[in-house]
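Subject: design request, 300 residues
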Protein backbone atom coordinates (compact mmCIF):
# COMPACT_ATOMS: atom_id res chain seq x y z
CA UNK A 1 0.00 0.00 0.00
CA UNK A 2 1.18 3.50 -0.82
CA UNK A 3 2.62 5.51 2.05
CA UNK A 4 0.58 8.68 2.37
CA UNK A 5 1.69 12.10 3.53
CA UNK A 6 -1.10 13.06 5.94
CA UNK A 7 -1.62 16.40 7.65
CA UNK A 8 -3.91 16.41 10.68
CA UNK A 9 -5.16 19.98 10.71
CA UNK A 10 -5.34 21.44 14.20
CA UNK A 11 -4.91 24.75 16.05
CA UNK A 12 -2.33 26.34 18.32
CA UNK A 13 -3.97 25.09 21.52
CA UNK A 14 -6.76 22.60 22.15
CA UNK A 15 -7.51 24.37 25.44
CA UNK A 16 -9.86 22.49 27.74
CA UNK A 17 -11.74 20.75 24.94
CA UNK A 18 -10.03 17.44 25.70
CA UNK A 19 -10.97 17.55 29.38
CA UNK A 20 -12.80 14.46 30.62
CA UNK A 21 -11.95 12.57 27.41
CA UNK A 22 -9.06 10.79 25.77
CA UNK A 23 -6.79 12.67 23.37
CA UNK A 24 -8.56 11.70 20.18
CA UNK A 25 -6.03 13.49 17.99
CA UNK A 26 -3.17 11.49 19.51
CA UNK A 27 -5.16 8.27 19.12
CA UNK A 28 -5.68 8.96 15.41
CA UNK A 29 -2.06 10.05 14.94
CA UNK A 30 -0.73 6.81 16.42
CA UNK A 31 -3.17 4.70 14.43
CA UNK A 32 -2.22 6.26 11.07
CA UNK A 33 1.48 6.00 11.91
CA UNK A 34 1.03 2.31 12.73
CA UNK A 35 -0.56 1.88 9.29
CA UNK A 36 2.76 3.03 7.80
CA UNK A 37 1.88 6.59 6.81
CA UNK A 38 3.81 9.82 7.33
CA UNK A 39 1.62 11.85 9.67
CA UNK A 40 2.09 15.29 11.19
CA UNK A 41 -0.01 17.87 12.99
CA UNK A 42 -0.25 21.16 11.10
CA UNK A 43 -1.78 24.39 12.41
CA UNK A 44 -4.31 25.69 9.91
CA UNK A 45 -3.20 29.32 10.13
CA UNK A 46 0.55 28.65 9.95
CA UNK A 47 1.73 30.48 6.83
CA UNK A 48 4.88 28.35 6.67
CA UNK A 49 3.01 25.13 5.86
CA UNK A 50 3.32 23.87 2.29
CA UNK A 51 -0.03 22.13 1.97
CA UNK A 52 0.78 20.88 -1.52
CA UNK A 53 3.34 18.54 0.06
CA UNK A 54 0.55 16.40 1.53
CA UNK A 55 -1.62 13.77 -0.11
CA UNK A 56 -4.46 14.66 2.20
CA UNK A 57 -5.17 17.30 4.82
CA UNK A 58 -7.67 15.99 7.36
CA UNK A 59 -9.45 18.84 9.10
CA UNK A 60 -9.45 17.34 12.58
CA UNK A 61 -9.34 19.94 15.36
CA UNK A 62 -9.13 23.60 14.26
CA UNK A 63 -11.03 24.39 17.42
CA UNK A 64 -10.43 28.12 17.27
CA UNK A 65 -11.76 28.72 13.74
CA UNK A 66 -14.92 30.43 14.99
CA UNK A 67 -12.78 32.98 16.84
CA UNK A 68 -10.97 33.85 13.59
CA UNK A 69 -13.64 33.15 11.01
CA UNK A 70 -12.49 35.62 8.34
CA UNK A 71 -8.95 34.23 8.47
CA UNK A 72 -10.41 30.72 8.35
CA UNK A 73 -12.39 31.55 5.21
CA UNK A 74 -9.20 32.90 3.61
CA UNK A 75 -7.39 29.68 4.54
CA UNK A 76 -10.19 27.61 2.98
CA UNK A 77 -9.86 29.60 -0.23
CA UNK A 78 -6.12 28.97 -0.23
CA UNK A 79 -6.66 25.25 0.28
CA UNK A 80 -8.87 25.17 -2.81
CA UNK A 81 -5.88 26.34 -4.81
CA UNK A 82 -3.60 23.60 -3.46
CA UNK A 83 -3.08 20.17 -5.00
CA UNK A 84 -3.68 18.53 -1.63
CA UNK A 85 -7.08 16.93 -1.06
CA UNK A 86 -8.95 18.29 1.94
CA UNK A 87 -11.29 16.15 4.04
CA UNK A 88 -13.92 17.17 4.60
CA UNK A 89 -14.32 19.03 1.29
CA UNK A 90 -13.66 22.76 1.48
CA UNK A 91 -17.05 23.67 0.00
CA UNK A 92 -18.75 21.61 2.70
CA UNK A 93 -16.71 23.16 5.50
CA UNK A 94 -17.46 26.67 4.26
CA UNK A 95 -21.19 25.89 4.07
CA UNK A 96 -21.24 24.30 7.52
CA UNK A 97 -19.36 27.11 9.31
CA UNK A 98 -22.42 29.39 9.53
CA UNK A 99 -25.56 27.99 11.13
CA UNK A 100 -27.61 29.63 8.41
CA UNK A 101 -27.17 26.20 6.78
CA UNK A 102 -30.21 25.18 8.88
CA UNK A 103 -32.34 26.83 6.20
CA UNK A 104 -30.97 24.48 3.55
CA UNK A 105 -31.74 21.51 5.78
CA UNK A 106 -35.29 22.67 6.34
CA UNK A 107 -35.84 23.08 2.60
CA UNK A 108 -34.89 19.42 2.24
CA UNK A 109 -37.46 18.37 4.83
CA UNK A 110 -35.12 17.95 7.81
CA UNK A 111 -36.74 18.60 11.19
CA UNK A 112 -34.54 21.30 12.74
CA UNK A 113 -34.91 23.14 16.04
CA UNK A 114 -36.86 26.34 15.18
CA UNK A 115 -34.54 29.33 14.84
CA UNK A 116 -35.04 33.08 15.09
CA UNK A 117 -32.28 34.86 13.17
CA UNK A 118 -30.60 37.96 14.60
CA UNK A 119 -28.59 39.81 11.98
CA UNK A 120 -25.36 41.60 12.83
CA UNK A 121 -26.13 45.16 13.90
CA UNK A 122 -29.75 44.39 14.82
CA UNK A 123 -31.39 44.82 18.23
CA UNK A 124 -32.23 41.96 20.57
CA UNK A 125 -36.01 42.10 20.97
CA UNK A 126 -36.69 39.52 23.64
CA UNK A 127 -40.47 39.90 23.63
CA UNK A 128 -40.68 39.30 19.88
CA UNK A 129 -38.45 36.24 20.12
CA UNK A 130 -40.40 34.62 22.97
CA UNK A 131 -43.65 35.24 21.11
CA UNK A 132 -42.31 33.90 17.80
CA UNK A 133 -40.84 30.74 19.33
CA UNK A 134 -43.69 30.19 21.79
CA UNK A 135 -41.45 29.08 24.63
CA UNK A 136 -40.75 30.22 28.22
CA UNK A 137 -37.00 29.79 27.81
CA UNK A 138 -34.60 30.35 24.91
CA UNK A 139 -31.03 29.63 23.87
CA UNK A 140 -29.15 32.51 22.21
CA UNK A 141 -25.84 31.83 20.46
CA UNK A 142 -23.68 33.10 17.60
CA UNK A 143 -24.31 31.87 14.06
CA UNK A 144 -20.61 31.00 13.86
CA UNK A 145 -19.69 29.36 17.13
CA UNK A 146 -18.45 26.34 19.03
CA UNK A 147 -17.81 25.09 22.53
CA UNK A 148 -20.82 26.99 23.94
CA UNK A 149 -19.03 30.30 23.36
CA UNK A 150 -21.28 33.33 24.07
CA UNK A 151 -24.25 31.00 24.56
CA UNK A 152 -27.10 32.14 26.81
CA UNK A 153 -29.95 30.14 28.34
CA UNK A 154 -32.61 32.71 29.25
CA UNK A 155 -36.10 33.02 30.64
CA UNK A 156 -37.93 36.31 30.13
CA UNK A 157 -36.49 37.94 33.25
CA UNK A 158 -32.95 36.84 32.44
CA UNK A 159 -33.35 37.98 28.83
CA UNK A 160 -34.14 41.49 30.00
CA UNK A 161 -31.00 41.66 32.14
CA UNK A 162 -28.79 40.29 29.34
CA UNK A 163 -30.19 42.46 26.55
CA UNK A 164 -27.42 45.07 26.70
CA UNK A 165 -24.70 42.42 26.58
CA UNK A 166 -26.33 40.60 23.66
CA UNK A 167 -26.79 43.87 21.77
CA UNK A 168 -23.10 44.59 22.24
CA UNK A 169 -22.24 41.17 20.81
CA UNK A 170 -24.65 41.72 17.91
CA UNK A 171 -22.54 44.62 16.75
CA UNK A 172 -19.78 42.12 15.95
CA UNK A 173 -21.64 39.16 14.47
CA UNK A 174 -25.01 37.56 13.80
CA UNK A 175 -26.80 35.38 16.35
CA UNK A 176 -29.76 33.05 16.48
CA UNK A 177 -32.29 32.18 19.15
CA UNK A 178 -33.92 28.78 19.65
CA UNK A 179 -36.34 27.27 22.15
CA UNK A 180 -34.69 25.72 25.18
CA UNK A 181 -35.49 22.02 24.83
CA UNK A 182 -36.21 20.38 28.17
CA UNK A 183 -35.69 17.03 26.45
CA UNK A 184 -31.95 17.73 26.41
CA UNK A 185 -31.98 17.74 30.21
CA UNK A 186 -34.40 14.83 30.59
CA UNK A 187 -33.38 12.56 27.71
CA UNK A 188 -29.98 13.82 26.58
CA UNK A 189 -28.64 14.58 23.11
CA UNK A 190 -27.76 11.92 20.56
CA UNK A 191 -24.66 12.08 18.38
CA UNK A 192 -24.64 9.76 15.37
CA UNK A 193 -21.24 9.29 13.70
CA UNK A 194 -20.81 8.58 9.99
CA UNK A 195 -17.61 7.89 8.06
CA UNK A 196 -17.73 8.10 4.28
CA UNK A 197 -21.49 8.47 4.55
CA UNK A 198 -21.84 5.14 6.36
CA UNK A 199 -23.06 4.79 9.94
CA UNK A 200 -20.36 3.89 12.47
CA UNK A 201 -21.59 4.40 16.03
CA UNK A 202 -23.61 6.63 18.33
CA UNK A 203 -23.38 8.15 21.78
CA UNK A 204 -25.91 9.74 24.08
CA UNK A 205 -24.66 12.87 25.87
CA UNK A 206 -26.19 14.10 29.11
CA UNK A 207 -25.55 17.28 31.10
CA UNK A 208 -24.31 17.35 34.66
CA UNK A 209 -26.92 18.21 37.31
CA UNK A 210 -27.97 21.86 37.15
CA UNK A 211 -26.52 22.44 33.68
CA UNK A 212 -27.92 22.25 30.14
CA UNK A 213 -24.64 21.85 28.26
CA UNK A 214 -23.91 18.25 27.31
CA UNK A 215 -20.31 18.71 26.12
CA UNK A 216 -17.91 16.37 27.91
CA UNK A 217 -15.38 19.18 28.48
CA UNK A 218 -18.08 21.07 30.41
CA UNK A 219 -18.84 18.18 32.72
CA UNK A 220 -21.34 16.27 30.57
CA UNK A 221 -21.38 12.48 30.44
CA UNK A 222 -21.14 10.19 27.44
CA UNK A 223 -23.13 6.94 27.23
CA UNK A 224 -23.28 4.25 24.55
CA UNK A 225 -26.77 2.71 24.49
CA UNK A 226 -28.08 1.17 21.28
CA UNK A 227 -29.86 4.01 19.48
CA UNK A 228 -33.54 3.55 18.62
CA UNK A 229 -33.92 2.40 15.02
CA UNK A 230 -36.26 5.22 13.99
CA UNK A 231 -33.85 7.90 15.26
CA UNK A 232 -30.92 6.24 13.50
CA UNK A 233 -32.91 6.06 10.26
CA UNK A 234 -33.49 9.83 10.38
CA UNK A 235 -29.81 10.50 11.08
CA UNK A 236 -28.79 8.23 8.20
CA UNK A 237 -31.07 10.09 5.83
CA UNK A 238 -29.49 13.42 6.84
CA UNK A 239 -25.96 12.07 6.41
CA UNK A 240 -26.82 10.61 3.00
CA UNK A 241 -28.29 13.89 1.74
CA UNK A 242 -25.65 16.27 3.06
CA UNK A 243 -22.45 14.34 3.87
CA UNK A 244 -22.10 11.40 1.49
CA UNK A 245 -18.73 12.72 0.25
CA UNK A 246 -17.43 13.51 3.74
CA UNK A 247 -14.82 11.57 5.68
CA UNK A 248 -16.74 12.28 8.86
CA UNK A 249 -20.13 13.64 9.85
CA UNK A 250 -21.79 13.95 13.21
CA UNK A 251 -25.55 14.29 13.38
CA UNK A 252 -26.59 15.77 16.74
CA UNK A 253 -30.22 15.66 17.72
CA UNK A 254 -32.75 15.20 20.45
CA UNK A 255 -35.81 12.97 20.53
CA UNK A 256 -39.03 15.00 20.71
CA UNK A 257 -42.41 13.29 20.50
CA UNK A 258 -40.82 10.17 19.12
CA UNK A 259 -38.76 11.75 16.33
CA UNK A 260 -35.23 13.10 15.93
CA UNK A 261 -35.00 16.89 15.82
CA UNK A 262 -31.64 18.12 14.54
CA UNK A 263 -29.52 20.31 16.81
CA UNK A 264 -26.36 20.43 14.67
CA UNK A 265 -24.87 18.79 11.60
CA UNK A 266 -21.17 18.78 12.47
CA UNK A 267 -18.94 18.63 9.37
CA UNK A 268 -15.90 20.71 10.36
CA UNK A 269 -14.18 19.56 13.55
CA UNK A 270 -16.45 17.44 15.72
CA UNK A 271 -15.22 15.18 18.47
CA UNK A 272 -15.80 11.71 17.02
CA UNK A 273 -15.90 9.59 20.19
CA UNK A 274 -13.50 7.10 18.58
CA UNK A 275 -12.72 5.48 21.91
CA UNK A 276 -16.33 4.45 22.52
CA UNK A 277 -16.46 1.84 19.74
CA UNK A 278 -13.76 -0.71 18.99
CA UNK A 279 -14.43 -0.66 15.23
CA UNK A 280 -14.78 3.10 14.81
CA UNK A 281 -11.22 4.04 13.93
CA UNK A 282 -10.94 1.24 11.36
CA UNK A 283 -14.14 2.46 9.73
CA UNK A 284 -12.74 5.97 9.70
CA UNK A 285 -9.57 4.73 8.02
CA UNK A 286 -11.47 2.68 5.43
CA UNK A 287 -13.57 5.72 4.55
CA UNK A 288 -10.44 7.84 4.11
CA UNK A 289 -8.88 5.32 1.73
CA UNK A 290 -12.12 5.01 -0.26
CA UNK A 291 -12.41 8.79 -0.69
CA UNK A 292 -8.78 9.14 -1.73
CA UNK A 293 -9.17 6.31 -4.27
CA UNK A 294 -12.24 7.98 -5.78
CA UNK A 295 -10.39 11.28 -6.01
CA UNK A 296 -7.45 9.61 -7.72
CA UNK A 297 -9.74 8.08 -10.35
CA UNK A 298 -11.50 11.41 -10.95
CA UNK A 299 -8.20 13.25 -11.37
CA UNK A 300 -6.90 10.94 -14.13
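Subject: RE: design request

Done. Sequence follows.
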Amino acid sequence: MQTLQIALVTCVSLGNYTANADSEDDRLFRFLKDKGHQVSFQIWEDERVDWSAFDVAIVKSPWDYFDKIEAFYIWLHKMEQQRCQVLNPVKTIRWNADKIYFRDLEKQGVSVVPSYWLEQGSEFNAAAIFEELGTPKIIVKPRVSGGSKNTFALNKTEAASETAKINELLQKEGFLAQPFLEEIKTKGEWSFLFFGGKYSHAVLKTAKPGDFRVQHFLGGSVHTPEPPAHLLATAEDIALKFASDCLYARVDGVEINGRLVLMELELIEPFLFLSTNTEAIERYYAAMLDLLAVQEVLSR
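The two ends are 19 Å apart (CA to CA).
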